[in-house]
Every structure is written in structure tokens, then in C-alpha cells.
Amino acid sequence: MEGPYKYIRDGNGKVTRVIRIGTRKSQLARIQTDSVAEQLKGLYPDVRLEIIGMTTTGDKILDTALSKIGEKSLFTKELETALERNEVDLVVHSLKDLPTALPPGFTIGAVLKRENPHDAVVLHPRNLGKSLNSLPDKSVIGTSSLRRAAQLKKRFPHLEFKDIRGNLNTRLKKLDEKDDFAAIILAAAGLSRMGWESRVGQILDPEDCLYAVGQGALAIEVRARDKDIVEMVSVLHDPETVLRCIAERAFLRQLEGGCSVPVAVHTEVKECQLYLTGAVFSLDGSNSLKDTMQTSVASDSEGEEQVDERSQRVGVTANNVPGPAQDAAEKLGLDMANLLLSKGAKEILTVARQLNDAR
């Protein structure tokens, strides 16, 4: 068996291809990857799966705020290198870690059904039963996200915000074992996947805090040329999540936002209409632009059978989701970004970037 793939022969001489899945080594990443492996195993019982854990730059640099490192692919680069070298066949990511432009030769072959995309407040045990609103003046809230800090500073001016880094386990430890923080803000989806829902003191609704592009969704990154793997993982696509995330990613790409600027979204699909709320903020939240637009993502039943010819939209290949609906979602994201840019979003983001670099 030539070629870059790995095969094994069982006792009966049957040859099986081994699909190697790359993942970060953190507990959350492993839980997410195991859940994807389980779904694939259920769909393809004959395929052998092997999980390969790796440490990424983002996992190593723990003393610097993410937005200061200025690298968009902090948590993905090493995994993509392994994909490029044929050391793994697919990689499981949190979609929000994936830049809107992937390196050439890669594509997102599946966007799985989104969990709760909102942010959650995890309180220090002494503050149990409180909310951000009822915490005492000058309480310190831990978050490493400029997006969260910008929105919450404006909404809760009596609170103070400080960076907190590390994986979920590390952050919870820092919260519980020291008295530095009154509460920390984390993605609800991660807490739920870890089985830590009981720690959620409050879920932040869109009025308090819009979420990050792609938050709550898992993505499977593959080599675009591996048609069989693209095909294999594509059954895991959740059509509604695909459309929402294409719109969100198109919005972010057009704004040229990354980790180092506060950009936030909210999307929903209701009765074949896709709604996108997009926003940009200054670092302290005092200056912001926010708007909502909608588009129809209804697909006529005639078109259902057509194979989508345009392979990628903002890095996503979803041939089993009607092309016109994907185009509409992408256009919605672009239109939303252009609307905010016409109102001065560029200036807000440029200042935010400069201030952040100077911090």
C-alpha cells in the first residue's frame, strides 16, 4: 500500500485504512475530539481511528494575553503542519480558533451542530448566587478576550477586568484557589462539554454580550485534495450551523478582525430567514457600532439535488448544503461588514488595534 496513508492488516488478512485525528492535548480538546471520533465510528464502523495529541504555541505561551501575541493561528498552526506532512488526516478544532482564511490546500470539511454559543459567568465560590450586576464595586472579572471585556466594561461600569490565561482547568483553579478574581467569563459550550454546567452562575444574553464568530461549534479541518476524507466527514455538517457560521466568518473576514480586535456577532435561523447581528467595539466599549440584517436561506426543492460547484466559502466546504443558501449567508456577512465599515468601523478597529499593541 503506497502513498501517505496508514493501513493495517488484521489477523484475517483484511486491510483497513487508519484515519489519524490530530488534536490539542488539553482536556477540553480531547473531549471534543473523542466526541467527533465516536460519531465517525458510529457512521463508519469499519474504519480504524487513531487520535494523536499535540501541543500548540497557544498552549505554551501562558503568560501573555492572546490578543498581544498577534498570531491568528495560535492554536492551529502545529496541527495544520501535521496535516500538511500527512502525519494526520483530519484535525478537530473549536471553529472560533480557526482564522477566516485557511492556508492553501486546507478546508473545513465539517461544521458540527452548534452548542450554546453564549458566554457564561463562573463565580468565585464566595460570590455564589450573585450576577455581574450584583457584584460589589471594583470586583475584578477575569477574561482574556477583548471582545468580552469591551462589551462588559460598557454594560457593567462598576466592575474591573483583567487578563486570565490558561486552559479551562487552569482558569478555574486560578479563580477558586486565589482571591484575585470575583468571577471569570468563559464560553458556555466549553463548560458544558467538560460537564461543568453546575459552575455556570449566569449565561450572558445578547443584550449583555454578543459572542465570538464560530463560538460553540466544532470544525473538522482536512486536506482539500483528500476527496474521500472530505466526503467522509461531510455527513457531520449541521446545515443551520454551517449557514450561521459562513455568515459570521464572512463578516469577520471583510472587517479583517482577529483575536486582537473586539468583533462580535449573534445569528439565528427562523422560518427560512437567517438573521445576523454584527458589532465592533473600542477596547473600553465606549465606542461601538452594531446592526442587524437578514436574508432568505430557503432552498427550492428543485435545487436540492444540485451538487454545489463552488467548493469553499470562507474556508468551509459543504457540498451537501444547497449552494444558493450558502451564497446568501456569505453575502449577508459581507453586506453587514460593509454597512458597519460605511459607518466608521475601520476607525474604531484601527484605534483598538493600536491601543492593544501599545498595552
TrEMBL record:
Any GO CC annotation of this UniProt entry: cytosol
Keywords assigned: Acetylation, Cytoplasm, Phosphoprotein, Porphyrin biosynthesis, Transferase
Catalysed reaction, written as an equation: 4 porphobilinogen + H2O = hydroxymethylbilane + 4 NH4(+)
Any one GO molecular-function label of the UniProt entry: hydroxymethylbilane synthase activity
The EC number(s) this enzyme carries: 2.5.1.61
One GO process term, biological-process aspect: protoporphyrinogen IX biosynthetic process
InterPro entries attached to this UniProt entry: HemC (IPR000860), Porphobilin_deaminase_cofac_BS (IPR022419), Porphobilin_deaminase_N (IPR022417), Porphobilinogen_deaminase_C (IPR022418), Porphobilinogen_deaminase_C_sf (IPR036803)
Coiled-coil segments on the chain, per record: none
Domain (Porphobilinogen deaminase N-terminal): residue spans on this chain: 19-230
Subcellular location(s) per record: Cytoplasm, Cytosol
Pfam families membership: Porphobil_deam, Porphobil_deamC
Cofactors that this protein relies on: dipyrromethane
Domain Porphobilinogen deaminase C-terminal: residue ranges: 243-297
Metabolic or biological pathway: Porphyrin-containing compound metabolism; protoporphyrin-IX biosynthesis; coproporphyrinogen-III from 5-aminolevulinate: step 2/4
Record's subunit section: Monomer.
Family as reported in the entry's similarity comment: Belongs to the HMBS family.
Task performed by this protein: As part of the heme biosynthetic pathway, catalyzes the sequential polymerization of four molecules of porphobilinogen to form hydroxymethylbilane, also known as preuroporphyrinogen. Catalysis begins with the assembly of the dipyrromethane cofactor by the apoenzyme from two molecules of porphobilinogen or from preuroporphyrinogen. The covalently linked cofactor acts as a primer, around which the tetrapyrrole product is assembled. In the last step of catalysis, the product, preuroporphyrinogen, is released, leaving the cofactor bound to the holodeaminase intact.
UniProt cross-references to PANTHER family, sorted A to Z: PORPHOBILINOGEN DEAMINASE
Name of the protein in its database record: Porphobilinogen deaminase
Species name: Esox lucius (Northern pike)
